[in-house]
Design a protein that fits this description.
By secondary structure, this protein is an all-alpha fold. The protein has a domain at about 25-155: Alpha Horseshoe (Serine Threonine Protein Phosphatase 5, Tetratricopeptide repeat), CATH 1.25.40.10. Helix content is about 70%, strand content about 0%. The chain has 39 helices and no strands. It has helices at about 5-45, 45-60, 65-75, 80-100, 105-120, 125-140, 145-170, 185-195, 230-245, 250-260, 265-270, 290-300, 300-310, 310-325, 325-340, 345-350, 350-355, 360-370, 375-390, 395, 405-410, 415-430, 435-440, 445-450, 460-480, 480-490, 490-505, 510-525, 530-535, 540-555, 580-595, 605-615, 620-630, 635-650, 655-660, 665-675, 680-690, 695-705, 705-715. α6 runs antiparallel to α7. It is globular, with a radius of gyration of 31 Å.
Length: about 725
């Protein structure tokens, strides 16, 4: 028995530990309440109040990773970039020293790195921003948002590098390497940028004595002797600089980077906002089309685009230009807004001017589409902008009460750009149930199918490929509606349009075109009528040929999705702004074949005939292609599951086992079981158990210890 003194000491220690635990629990509860309150305020746009809540939570629990990450996000919204970096630094430090960089904290760490990168980018520290985002990608490989942010950060870093290189070359009088802008071009950019600066400049402080090489502001532009001449001078400078900025390749990239560094981007935005000093009467101010078209040229660079993307006042001026009677200004305003609204953050910032009922911009855009023959460039920009508006619930709301027939009428337009933009608009509009239903009633599904080529063109350029991809994307999206599918398949002519035209595009060299065509066919095959139509059009060999081609590309491709790819799931709306990869073609083709192969899927076709069609062409038959898809390591789970499901269906037939054995299915299906979890592994296991009815395949299954592998992965 311990002495009384020892008992008293242990009791005191126990009491102290209990009190500490109680205090820590209370502090964590306070921190959690403050975090929840801060999140609610943040969602309401009250960023300053949200930050105070996060700080109050951190006062209670300084080691809370989530509070530091949230405080960084609030700081970003408030423009306090150094403060945001400090919170992210603390978050990463706590994760390292208190959590030993555990996997449980990877998600919050990735968010902190993203936010630190955003803050560093805002401060112009692009190299550090890129490093942060590369680290974030390692922690969260499946984040398209991080991948897209990294892509833009690398672009900004490249612009910064080019701007510094151009300044260095100018200082030394050295010409650049092959493909870059010449010294004469860079000097011309500087002169034009000076013309765009305000005519009345404040006094420029000279370098302080003893200041060494300290940079001084650029010299002010020369005063314009005749103020009435300034609008014409601005228009000329904007036009010439736009021509330079539109140059292709490294030369154009150098021009855009140097123009941004020289202040031309900010100056053009200021002029477009109407902030230049008005000329004396009767001279008129410069037309908004000139600076807006220059901004469009400069915004070919993501770095330039990011600078002005959230400028709501500039957005309002563009909206006003769209409503003006000047066609050039309307086209320039629509094109600039189309370029700026490509990101969710920009759309959110520009929502007020874009949804202002007094401007009625959505109606004006549709009116521009209706007058496409008079002004095709304005109509193309209007259709593109409408497509971007459809990506956001608040921005597409005004479209629900407007007729979209003028946009649909552009689907078959002779100009590829107009048809492409219209297709993207229709495809994005399908993300809204009300808009999709109205499009179905207008018969847009038939118009989309009719706009596709009757057969695969012998040669198609990039513009035509983009056109086909946009039309197929829209068609795939509208086919999510049961009524659209029934309408298309109700007549022989509709079946021809809906099945044979997309099927011909499976032979396209453009991966996105093939992926979208496969998605159209798989959605048609949801219905027995569609499955029968694909079968009757000799679709099985055509789909399997596309599957084999894309499997080969998938096997040799080392590229992974960077956030710009979108194959789409069977029930989701595809994005018209994203491309696809061979993996998405494989998935769509496998899904189509599995739907046709499913037992009783096409009841009017004898089972033996269906099986013979899948086995036609021996080692290159559809079932052989499905076998390769099931075993491929880089196939999706959905693809492997569908391919295995098709094999399981045909393995039901005892009289087919000898024919199936000739394709050697046991080893590939065992590989599928080993690689997969859940439904794909279960489907492959079921197929193997049915194939075991053949003595030859049963022996192979035992040789490869298939029963043990199946037993370890598949549960009843």
């Amino acid at each position: 028995m311990l002495p009384d003194a020892s008992n008293a000491q242990f009791a005191a220690m126990e009491k102290d530990l209990n009190e500490r635990h109680k205090r820590q629990t209370e502090q964590r509860q306070v921190a959690e309440r403050q975090r929840v309150a801060g999140n609610n305020l943040f969602r309401c746009g009250q960023f300053s109040e949200a930050y105070r809540c996060y700080e109050a939570g951190l006062d209670a629990d300084r080691r809370n990773l989530h509070l530091h990450a949230n405080a960084a996000q609030a700081s970003l919204k408030l423009g306090c970039y150094v403060q945001a970096i400090e919170h992210c630094d603390k978050c990463m430090s706590i994760r390292e020293f208190l959590h030993n960089n555990s996997g449980d904290t990877a998600t919050v760490a990735a968010k902190a790195l993203q936010r630190r990168a955003a803050a560093r980018g805002a401060l112009g520290h692009w190299s550090q921003a890129v490093s942060d985002l590369e680290e974030a990608i390692k922690l969260n490989k499946d984040s398209p948002e991080t991948a897209a942010q990294l892509k833009r950060a690398r672009a900004s870093l490249e612009v910064e590098r080019r701007a510094k290189a151009a300044a260095k070359r100018l200082a030394k009088g050295e010409e650049g390497g092959e493909g870059g802008a010449s010294l004469a071009t860079l000097r011309r950019v500087e002169k034009l940028a000076k013309v765009l600066q305000p005519p009345i400049a404040a006094a420029v402080p000279s370098p302080s004595e003893g200041g060494g090489e300290a940079a001084s502001p650029p010299p002010p532009p020369p005063a314009v002797e005749d103020p009435a001449r300034r609008p014409a001078a601005l228009a000329e400078a904007c036009g010439e600089l736009r021509t330079l900025a539109e140059m292709e390749g490294a030369e154009g990239e150098d021009v855009r980077a140097h123009a941004k560094a020289c202040g031309a981007l900010d100056a053009a935005a200021r002029i477009a906002r109407g902030e230049d000093a008005p000329p004396p009467p009767p001279a008129a101010p410069v037309a908004p089309s000139a600076p807006m078209r220059l901004l469009c040229a400069l915004c070919r660079s993501d770095a330039c685009q990011d600078v002005i993307a959230t400028d709501a006042y500039l957005g309002a001026k563009c909206a006003d230009a769209i409503a003006s009677s000047d066609v050039e200004s309307a086209a320039a305003g629509a094109q600039l807004l189309y370029m700026l609204t490509g990101t969710a953050s920009a759309r959110k910032a520009l929502t007020p001017p874009l949804t202002d009922p007094e401007r009625g911009m959505a109606a004006k855009l549709i009116e521009r589409c209706a007058r496409a023959d008079e002004a095709p460039s304005a109509a193309a920009s209007a259709a593109g902008l409408l497509g971007n508006l459809c990506l956001d619930a608040a921005l597409r709301a005004p479209l629900r009460s407007l007729p979209l027939k003028p946009v649909a009428a552009l689907l078959s337009h002779r100009e590829a750009l107009l048809a492409t933009r219209a297709g993207a608009c229709i495809g994005n509009a399908c993300s809204d149930l009300t808009l999709r239903e109205s499009l179905v009633k207008l018969g847009v599904a038939e118009e989309l199918a009719a706009a596709l080529p009757a057969s695969m063109p012998a040669a198609s350029n990039d513009a035509e490929s983009r056109r086909y991809a946009a039309l197929l994307t829209a068609l795939a999206n509208i086919l999510l509606d049961d009524g659209a599918r029934k309408s298309l398949l109700a007549s022989p002519a509709g079946k021809n349009l809906a099945v044979e035209r997309p099927m011909s595009l499976l032979a396209s060299d453009a991966t996105t075109v093939r992926a979208r065509a496969a998605m159209v066919l798989s959605r048609l095959c949801r219905d027995a009528e569609g499955r029968g139509a694909v079968y009757a059009a000799d679709g099985i060999p055509q789909v399997s040929a596309a599957l084999r081609k894309s499997l080969a590309e998938q096997a040799t491709s080392s590229a992974s999705d960077d956030g710009s790819a979108d194959g789409g799931d069977e029930d989701g709306v595809l994005s018209g702004a994203k491309s696809a990869t061979p993996r998405h073609v494989v998935e769509g083709c496998a899904r189509t074949l599995a739907l046709i192969a499913t037992s009783a899927a096409v009841p009017e076709i004898p089972r033996g005939e269906l099986r013979a069609r899948f086995l036609a062409d021996g080692k290159t038959c559809a079932l052989a292609a499905l076998l390769d898809a099931a075993a491929a390591k880089n196939s999706t789970d959905a693809c492997a599951g569908n391919a295995s499901l098709a094999w399981g269906e045909f393995a039901r037939d005892a009289d087919a086992l000898s024919s199936l054995a000739s394709l050697g299915p046991v080893a590939p299906l065992i590989e599928c079981v080993k690689l997969r979890e859940g439904a794909p592994a279960r489907n492959a296991g079921i197929a193997l158990s049915r194939l075991a009815g053949d003595a030859q395949m049963l022996e192979k299954l035992r040789e490869l210890r298939g029963m043990e592998i199946i037993g370890s992965k598949v549960r009843a």
